[in-house]
C-alpha cells in the first residue's frame, strides 16, 4: 500500500512525485527554450516572440535548467536503490546511456553558456536580477567552449529528446510494458510497498 510519505519517493514500481515533478519541469523548460529559439529563427522580432522572450529569457531559462538538472541528478542518486529497474540486456544499457547523455548535456550546455557570458564581460542576469557581476575584461578561454559547442550540443539534445519521446511512445503503444505509466505516476500492476 502506498502511504502519503511514499508518494514523494521512488519505488520499484513507479517514480515518486519528486522525480516526476523534476522530469516534467525539465521538459517544460527545454520546450520553452527551444520554442523561444525557434520562434526567433522563424519570425524574428514579432509580438509573439517578444512575449515568449519575456516569459522565458534564454539566459534565465538556461540557468534555471542547470539548477533543475543538478537537483534532479542529486535526487536520482539518492533514489537509485528505490527506482524502477531498467530493462535487462541491451535495451536497458541503451536506456542508461541515453539518460546519462541527457544529464551530461543538460548540465554542460547551460554551464558553458554561463561561462561564456561571464567571459564576454557580461553580468549573469536572472529575470532582471543580477546574480553575478560583469567581468572587468573579456576572457577568451571562458568563451571558447560555448562558442564552439553550445549550439551543436543543443541540437544533439533535441535529437535525443525526439528519440526519447519516440521510445516512450513505443513502450506505451507497442511494447505495452508500463514504463511510461511509471513516469506518469501510475504504478505497475504490482502493488507498491
Automatic annotation (TrEMBL):
Residues passing through the membrane, by range: 21-40, 60-77, 97-115, 153-175
Keyword Transmembrane helix: yes
GO BP of this protein: respiratory electron transport chain
Record's keyword terms, sorted: Cell membrane, Electron transport, Heme, Iron, Membrane, Metal-binding, Transmembrane, Transmembrane helix, Transport
Subcellular location: Cell membrane
A GO CC annotation given for this chain: plasma membrane
PANTHER family (alphabetical): CYTOCHROME B561, CYTOCHROME B561 HOMOLOG 2
Entries under SUPFAM superfamilies matching the protein: Transmembrane di-heme cytochromes
Topology in the lipid bilayer: Multi-pass membrane protein
Family per record: Belongs to the cytochrome b561 family.
Domain of life the protein comes from: Bacteria
Domain Cytochrome b561 bacterial/Ni-hydrogenase residue range list: 14-185
Cofactor: heme b
Protein name: Cytochrome B
Recorded GO MF terms: electron transfer activity; heme binding; metal ion binding
UniProt keyword NAD present: no
Amino acid at each position: 500500500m502506498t502511504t502519503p510519505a511514499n508518494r514523494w519517493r521512488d519505488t520499484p514500481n513507479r517514480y515518486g512525485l519528486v522525480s516526476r515533478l523534476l522530469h516534467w519541469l525539465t521538459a517544460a523548460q527545454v520546450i520553452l527554450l527551444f520554442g523561444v529559439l525557434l520562434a526567433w529563427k522563424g519570425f524574428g522580432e514579432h509580438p509573439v516572440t517578444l512575449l515568449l522572450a519575456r516569459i522565458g529569457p534564454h539566459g534565465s531559462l538556461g540557468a534555471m535548467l542547470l539548477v533543475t538538472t543538478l537537483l534532479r541528478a542529486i535526487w536520482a542518486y539518492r533514489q537509485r536503490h528505490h527506482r524502477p529497474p531498467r530493462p535487462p540486456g541491451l535495451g536497458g544499457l541503451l536506456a542508461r546511456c541515453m539518460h546519462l547523455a541527457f544529464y551530461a548535456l543538460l548540465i554542460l550546455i547551460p554551464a558553458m553558456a554561463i561561462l561564456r557570458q561571464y567571459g564576454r564581460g557580461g553580468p549573469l542576469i536572472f529575470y532582471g536580477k543580477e546574480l553575478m557581476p560583469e567581468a572587468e575584461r573579456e576572457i577568451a578561454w571562458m568563451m571558447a567552449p560555448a562558442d564552439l559547442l553550445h549550439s551543436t550540443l543543443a541540437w544533439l539534445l533535441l535529437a535525443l529528446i525526439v528519440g526519447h519521446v519516440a521510445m516512450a511512445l513505443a513502450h506505451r503503444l507497442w511494447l505495452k510494458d508500463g514504463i511510461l505509466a511509471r513516469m506518469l505516476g501510475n504504478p505497475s500492476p504490482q502493488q507498491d510497498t
